[in-house]
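Lab notes, practical 5.
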Amino acid sequence: MTTTAIPLITVVIPAYNAEKTLLETLTSVSNQSYDRLEILVVDDGSRDGTLELAHDYRLRDNRVRVLTQVNGGVARARNHGIREARGVYIAPVDADDVWHPHKLELQLQALRKLPEGKGVAYNWYAAIDENGIIFGHSRPVLHQGNIFEPLLRENFIGNGSTPLMPREEIIRCGGYDAGLRDSGAEGCEDLKLYLALAETLPFALAPDFLTGYRFTRGNMSSNALRMLKSHSLVMEPIIKRYPHLAHDIRAAKFNTARWYFNRAFAARDYNQVRKLAPMMAREYSPQLIAHGLQQRFRQVKRHGIRVAKRLLGKPSAPKNVFAGAAIPQPGTPFSDRFVPIGELLSPKRSRMTDNA
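Output from the prediction step:
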């Protein structure tokens, strides 16, 4: 097959003080079934052993290159990697997230269904904790093709470690916006780029939970108020360009705020709850009332359906599969989705040939 049929993919891993998780991330990249990869670790001025770990891993897999920069944030680190990339496609993954071994292969298969294979591929994710244990998952949507308006209403991609994107189109869009960090609003750089790409490119879905997205109290997405400020700054110019979508964008901002509040409450992060509650009450009181009534109606409806099924002798069974994909089960390791129990995840073999 030609190199066009087997394109080089550049994996970009921004890493800042990531010595606790980087090895697991790198291993999940090395273990990809699609192996024509260039793997760029961009050390963002780390003060721990991140840089040394990356250099050591380079001895195990020489597809890895290590880049460094003065600390400038995740957007600048990703952009640095994109500038240095040789691949046709860019696959970003944060240094605390992990991939299913078939992620890139399945995404390429999805892209080949698009006209000329040109577009962006995404998948669903499983939410994992510090120990790689699943505690939730993204809502499995089926949006494909022109997904600009659905993505405005809901960031169903949900993180920076999921998409597979054409490098030249990322550069055309200006890459990740490092200015959000400079404005004290770091967090939605990935969403801003996805929306810019979605204005002109179709998106393809690889329908499975292929990204393990790690939530910890210390990571960027745990700072809810900063993320909400970032979301507002990203949406402001879009409202100006598409005023007819203003209502949908306002609804998205409310749903985003509610999501962060619910997540903080479920995690018993009461410091975040105390910060969010006054803002929610001040800015979204009517929406909260309407949402509460809708939720109550849905609860009554679901209860009525369960009662009716029991009376008819049709007990409800939990749904374990959606669109052919096994739904992530809370309390199980993400690695159990692809590794037999008892088998450690490790690089398939030493990579001492230049695949680039």
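Observations recorded by the TA: The CA atoms of residues 133 and 324 lie 22 Å apart. The two ends are 15 Å apart (CA to CA).
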